[in-house]
Amino acid sequence: MMPRLRLLCVCAGFPWLVAASEPASVPAETRPTAAPAAEIGPPPPEVAHPAAPAAKAEVPGTVLPPENTSPAAGAAASGLHRPPEPTVEEGAPGLIKKGLERTTQGDYDGAIAVFSQVLTLDATAAQQRAALLGYARALRKKSEFTKAAAVYEKILKDYPLDEDAPDIYLELGRTQRALGAYRTAISRFYSVINSTLKLPESGAERYRQLAKTAQFEIAETHFQAGEYQEASRFYSRLRLLDLATADRARAHFKSAYSLFLAEDYSNAVGSLRDYLDQHPEDENVPEARYLLAVSYRRLHRPLEALVEALELLRTEKALTAKDPRLWTYWQRKTGNQIANEFYEQGDSANALTIYLTLSELSPEPAWRLPIVYQIGLCYERLGEATEAITSYQSILDNVRGPKGDGSARPELADLARMAAWRLDQITWQHNTQQRLLLLLPQQHPVQATPAPHHDASGNAPAAPTALR
Length: 468
Description:
This protein has about 475 residues and is mainly α. It is about 60% helix and about 0% strand. α5 (about 125-140) packs antiparallel against α6 (about 145-160) and α19 runs antiparallel to α20.
């Protein structure tokens, strides 16, 4: 049995079923950021939404085992503190159990080694199938998606479908999506739905849950493929299903977000408004406020954009206390972007309103002082020289050390030099205007003598003569 199984692996093009190789690299996606007036820091991990966000390992509602990691994974990769390798004498059932345990512990290399040993034994077809499935899942968790997809395909081709067929199609679809094969992934997700129709009624509730998960994955795949209008339609359909409140809120938000990315700002505004009304306490509310404010700016509706930005910045602490880091990130990002756009387009008054609110978010100098500098620029544009001087001077007072240099806060030394330069400019302009007033001759007002009703001859009056 053992030589035949090895020959099968080689002939089928799976020599790596016995010997593992290096993991395939997957390009990481990053979040596009605005150009804020002050550094707002990296987004918290739980809110990283790029223009086309990377796929999450699982979606709400799935019944698959959680894709968790463990500190043991790092130790396993380095070969430190590794449990002894199982022996062949333990038999296929014992090896499969150990492989599953190592997968749960995050020791994916160890799990792959154990499942590979099962394939060298004179195991039953069911045991071989279980080992291959465990092997595929360990590869997928290790991000070796190309190999994992090939093993999943082999299971579907060489072994009869069982009650776990929907799970296998679901995992294969996610694996292919990670490889960028979006059309193939969508086909596999539809296979999940079709396979649930052929299974016994005993697990009807579980199969219905898998079908809902597959529909969510279809929408997510369109989203990641950049097909935002199509993604929005699929997310909207999900809202009609019997979903948990959190899942329905997420589908609603992603539908609106897809419209925003499709640059369909009019419909995005309506969808975001509905989302905020129906799910005021959802975790994506602060980002929705940001998207709504930006959508209004894109639609050239500045006053509504201002209202949304201020609404987010002035949110009650009772709401932000649930996740202060999340709210702080979106407050700063929204305020910076909208205020900067107002300022760049010459609307200094509205920009000033937002900057003043932003400066109250944190007393930390590294955050507040750059905002104070923007406030000073707005006051200059509005002709309020005294307020501008006060803003710039407060920066110098907070940055300069006892010797008058930037030793107190060296990281803000450049900002202090800019503020000092602006102060010099304001002083120069004021002194120049005063000197001009002294040098230029004073202008007397032009007076006109009243014209007589008629001259001595009774003729019509002449034009008035100007006296200077």
